[in-house]
Amino acid sequence: MNIQQYMADVGRQARAASRAMARATSGEKNAALGAIAAALRAHRSAILDANQRDLARGRDNGLEPALLDRLELTPARFDGMVEGLEQVVALADPVGAITDLNFRPSGIQVGKMRVPLGVIGIIYESRPNVTIDAAALCLKSGNAAILRGGSEAIDSNQAIAECLRAGLREAGLPDTAVQVIETTDRAAVGELISHPEFVDVIVPRGGKGLIERISAEARVPVIKHLDGNCHVYIDADADPAKALKVAYNAKTQRYGTCNTLETLLVHAGIAERVLPELADQYRQAGVELRGCERVRKLLGDQVAEATEADWEEEYLAPVLAIRMVDDLDQAMDHIHRYSSGHTESIITENYSHARRFLAEVDSSSVMVNASTRFADGFEYGLGAEIGISTDKLHARGPVGLEGLTSQKWVVFGDGHVRQ
Amino acid sequence: MNIQQYMADVGRQARAASRAMARATSGEKNAALGAIAAALRAHRSAILDANQRDLARGRDNGLEPALLDRLELTPARFDGMVEGLEQVVALADPVGAITDLNFRPSGIQVGKMRVPLGVIGIIYESRPNVTIDAAALCLKSGNAAILRGGSEAIDSNQAIAECLRAGLREAGLPDTAVQVIETTDRAAVGELISHPEFVDVIVPRGGKGLIERISAEARVPVIKHLDGNCHVYIDADADPAKALKVAYNAKTQRYGTCNTLETLLVHAGIAERVLPELADQYRQAGVELRGCERVRKLLGDQVAEATEADWEEEYLAPVLAIRMVDDLDQAMDHIHRYSSGHTESIITENYSHARRFLAEVDSSSVMVNASTRFADGFEYGLGAEIGISTDKLHARGPVGLEGLTSQKWVVFGDGHVRQ
After folding, report:
1. Average pLDDT of chain B to the nearest whole number
2. For a tag on chain A, would you pick the N or C end, based on fewer CB atoms within 10 A?
3. What structural domains and CATH numbers belong to chain A?
4. CA distance A265 to chain B (A)
5. Mutating which of A408, A412, A419 best tests the B interface, going by the most B Cβ atoms within 10 A?
6. ipTM of the complex
7. What range(s) does the Aldehyde dehydrogenase domain occupy (chains A, B) (predicted)?
């Protein structure tokens, strides 16, 4: 297979399909999603069989247990995946909405219409459920999609791809509107990210290394989801009960997610009142603590010494760094220096401190008296998300259907000309 | 001068200043703009003298008359430039606006807050007025700016830069919030576009070649303003009077602007009724016509033969390509193939055709019965613009203050944790 030729064909087909998708009605797009769900259910055993082949090959190739787990489609996961697809049917269609339509002094009426981006390329790991999630969000937002999943999931993905094509055809939409790359050749990724004439935006989903590499090499804009080195700052004027509750939840509710707390900042004036109890709770949950000198002085030797690397790290594990600070500015300076710009929360009853933290902390989500774990498309009401952007341009924070669209200006006149 | 070191210093200072700018109040920012205007007025003759030195050097170096014209600050232009700066004071400050603030089932309250992008790098030609325009828009939107103007304007720009610094200091803002690069070394541009740690977005203003080169090499996101190959389509159901008025205005009101009509598409069913009269008007205005075979058959040999290159070209001159089409789909296919995605307009009284054209034409501005010349930040009510984006991501069409900002999610809780 000539990869360049193959990817150019895929790209051209996607570009052509994107025009049909852009004018598809909400009814047609929903019909396609429904038909895809039906096709997936009808081919359930074939897809699970394909997944078993992927798993067997993965085991033979010595794939790590964590990766095998992500690769696996259990019957329950399969059903959840199809239900997720059907939930996208219920989401409002963002395409075509016209906002800010106003008359100008010249007499023209100017507004903005929400429109699809065009062709979205998604590069992800060996998680077959992402194939469905990504396809559903791209279709609903009127885009064409080119999906490149991890090579270990190739059989699962191809089995799912057949259902995608069948559902699209049944709804009268081009079955090239979602294309799943049929080769495991890595050169396909290089091609996918190099042709702005075929692809409007790349959404990489995976580890930081993958995303940094793609961002560095891409000739197409990238919506990045980098790491989540999230902070909670317990202000001097915090309500201790809220501080305990939020700081505990933000760290322990789930360890492996990007919105999990990684460094806790505590004002020196409240440290004695909250830290010992909080440290007990963390220890009972099995969280390893690493503190600055002042924190260790307060909590004793059970707390390991935090080094510069601890302030920088996204643990994604039951480990927490803790630092004592003297005021809000020191807390914000720490965040400014070490945060990855994902999510930060202040715990305070002080009106002015809350306002300053909200205004001055430059992260995709900034919270007051709430757990960082809320930074999520479902919790924010987007219905679904394709990722959480740590970029500032275009889409920031959880990216749902709207993040996969753009706006164009529309002008209504009546023979108006410029003077 | 070590360019790398110099640009890293500039970058670090800009990044530091961006934090102060992000928290600056509207009052402080407006005070700085006012103080800059006063400083410019106070140093009027020094700036005009510096501009005379640039002009003299330009003439010695054989600069083309058109470039010398753009470089020149006549007293009238100078005054217009300062007035433009003062108009930015009157614009609403986009920063801090919170929208879509709603309670979620979990009890948290989620919204979006508009925030500055951070540091904006602007690369432009030898037009000293752009130094003021760009500085004013970046300051008002709470950003720090690094300005790199054309080397021919170096003396003018440095004289203006002194006033920028003085005005910022007077308002109590860091005078590094707007930095004008002090070297004409081209390596400075390479540095400016290569450091995402210092610069959040690059806005190149200039010819297509400059913008394509910067886009290809930049490691920082670029808001692009490429060419404007704009179309007007006269539908079979057009009101002939409106068609004549709009098509004439779109071509002749100004020739050198990006929103000027470059290819006119005319439905075969109305061509005889509008084209001969329109062609007469164009000819009287001195516009050279180049047509497809059917247009030449109708209008005669005075119309030159249009080649493939004519459909692709942005003339920026009194030249117009004309093509006859058989229906709306043919017109949209032509636009899809040749348009640069800037601005297209349909002239029609047909409701369904207007709706289809609006929905399906994928350009930054899509119009019905209005001249393409309206595609402009002032006409759209943005107050001012830093350029017109032909990108789909982040900012599309005229880019005003809002295009120089981003949004972050804000969450208000009361000790809320995720279950």
Report:
1. 95
2. C
3. 3-224+398-412 (3.40.605.10), 230-374 (3.40.309.10)
4. 17
5. A408
6. 0.94
7. 12-285, 311-376
